[in-house]
Amino acid sequence: MSIFVPFKAIRPSADSVESVSTKPYDVLDTEEAREESKGNPKSYYHVTKPEIDFPNGHDPFSPEVYKHGKQNLINLVNDGTMIQDNTESFYVYRLEMNGHVQTGLVGCCSIDDYFNEVIKKHETTKPHIEADRKKHVCESRVNYEAVFLSYRKVDAIDELVENLKHGKPPLYDFHSDDGVKHSLWRVEDPSIIQKITELFAAKVPTIYIADGHHRTAAGALAGRDLRKNAKNAKNRYGYIMSVLFPDDQVQIMDYNRAVKDLNGLSREEFLQRIRENFEVVKMEGRYRPVTHQNIGLYIDGSWYKLIAREGTYNPSDLVDQLSFTILSKQILAPILNIVDLRRDSRIEFIGGIRGLEELEKHVDSGKMAVAFAMHPISMAQIIHIADNHLSMPPKITWFEPKLRSGLFVHSLNGSFE
What we know:
Blueprint: E1 4-5, E2 10-12, H1 17-20, H2 30-36, H3 45-48, H4 63-78, E3 82-84, E4 90-97, E5 100-110, H5 111-115, E6 119-120, H6 127-140, E7 142-143, E8 147-151, H7 155-167, E9 172-175, E10 181-187, H8 190-203, E11 207-211, H9 213-228, E12 239-246, E13 252-253, E14 255-259, H10 267-275, E15 278-282, E16 294-299, E17 302-308, H11 323-332, E18 347-351, H12 356-364, E19 370-373, H13 379-387, E20 398-399, E21 410-411
Parallel strand pairs: 6-11, 8-12
Antiparallel strand pairs: 1-5, 2-3, 4-5, 4-10, 5-12, 7-21, 8-11, 9-10, 13-20, 14-18, 14-19, 15-17, 16-17, 16-19
Helix pairs in contact: 6-9
């Protein structure tokens, strides 16, 4: 069984939601956040990326930066820009983008479910990132952003959520600057809250982390430490703010790669090395792979289809058969000498939302030497991998649409202070 409970959200007033809400903190850098929030003191970037209020070069992980972010949130509450609901509630959150619609429930999951592997992961986390974000949670006592979780669809939950959307008008109903429509409904009826909690306990034995592995780990570790020394009986240290979507509504796009140089090889030498493990077919136009055994390659104005040869991957291995693994093992590491995808500055990752033309721009401009178009992983594959306690390579999943930050905040102290 899974534990899913309501909370008293801190959220924008209806007339402030568009000026407060932002993209997730980790999809843009400090300078981009500084530019996007220019002239807008209500921007949630002042909370999630408070280093934008400090001079260039200031350590974004320093204690004074963390404290400043918390103070910025306090200021938004004190001036009425954000409010805290007076009763524990669930929230129905619908996102619409280019004809795709997904609707989730916002609430809090149990950190014990994380440690007991009711909440399953599919990526390994970096201890230094975990430690930094854990410190952030411990100092602020706030979940600033929700983690993005999924579960195998349950008809009874789908039906209940659908009915809740039609029961009353939403708190918010607006388009963000990236064209996504965001709608949020509050669920405060105690009988419905109990029904939601009971349905998750009875019908959802496992929850899967879609996006936010480090935030989930940090929230769980921080909560466990805080709970040990808790003096406030009304604390919520045992919970992490989450948005849960049924697996059939989650949209994962391709997450492509571009590399700055060919590791000293000429174009022909590079292609010849690739032919050792792939059939290389020149295409007339852009090529988008339709299976994990195919990869698109763009170089010098031309597109190629790479077909992995037999023996280059294990078709019975859930991770080894992925195009991302095949690319890393057969091209990135042995030919281009890129081993650490997280740290090597020669590789860049480009979300599929930007299209294959973005790969062409990167190469045609001379910024990159070669680009690779990848086949997206599915939520079903993620679930299968997580159920088998396996880990995928980094930078594989690109979820769209992105959750909007600043629509809901969770105070671990219960009431905000």
